[in-house]
Amino acid sequence: xxxxxxxxxxxxxxxxAVKNQGFLNLFREAxxxxxxxxxxxxxxxxxxxxxxxxxxNRTRDxxxxxxxxxxxxxxxxxxFLTEIGNHKGKTLAFxxxxxxxxxxxxxxxxxTLAVSKERLAxxxxxxxxxxxxxxxxxxRFQEEGEPFVMKSVDGxxxxxxxxxxxxxxxxxGITLQQYCLDFNRRLGVLxxxxxxLQEMVSGSGRDIRVYVVGNRIYQAMLRQGQGDFRSxxxxxxxxxxxxxxxxxxxxIGQFLxxxxxxxxxxxxxxxxxxxxxxxxxxxxxxxxxxxMIYQNTGRDIVRDYVMWLRDCxxxxxxxxxxxLAEMEDSNGI
Length: 333
Description:
CATH class of the largest domain: Alpha Beta
Number of domains: 3
Number of strands: 13
Largest sheet: 5 strands, antiparallel
CATH topology of the largest domain: D-amino Acid Aminotransferase, Chain A, domain 1
Strand content: 15-25%
CATH architecture of the largest domain: 2-Layer Sandwich
Radius of gyration: 23 Å
Distance between the termini: 18 Å
Helix content: 25-40%
Number of helices: 13
CATH superfamily of the largest domain: ATP-grasp fold, B domain
Structural class: alpha+beta
């Protein structure tokens, strides 16, 4: 390499790369300023390319990260983070084992139950028979008259997230059979997937996306749903820059500390704003989109991320070792 530009790969599924051409170009431009050559590598071809200095895995597939890790190439994110960051249940379980007791004693996340794809298939036949009582997972919500949410463990951008209102008998204007049929029909998008059943946190469809660069808070964005409990920008939600209070920074900092030992290069932590103003953790967005930062702030998150990568010890340490080995070879040492 002889002291030239560092070589970096952005691994994408082909269809995602087409949609994210502008994002790829931002990396190329920022890389040019920082001595890095960023190349797009298709998901179905990454094993055929020569090894780069580091990789940004934008596929959500942990096996891509694992493949590079086995070859000692720094990859963001690690196979572990890519796995838990694309499985909402695993994210919650990880945090439950890492967050301090003072957080765990509070309402830090929605009440959550896992519903396997096999159990969901049983729901299908139970609902078809109009037997709502057999769905023991939703019984509490039915008894207390509280709405609830069903979501796939690996959905993103607000896709595969559904809200349900409990059956309220004669007051609802529909029969139990009609309610069960509609419930079953709407669940169709989730069949064949492992899911989470969660309470719906009352909060007017507002949440905060906290962008993280290099394990530090970079920028918080307030998102507001447009007539929808989901606030995702991809679903038409509004977004704007949000100034975190000192107590909010300290609280979010506890979540970042839970990831100690892992490197969050560029990621998002999503928190629902409850009616009482508390932040309730929703999910980790391992492959966070950055469009709303560019649309609503004057910040260039890709450039700042690339500058962080330029100085990242995992990358520079490996590159320096390679340069040293090349110098020794050329000098016959």
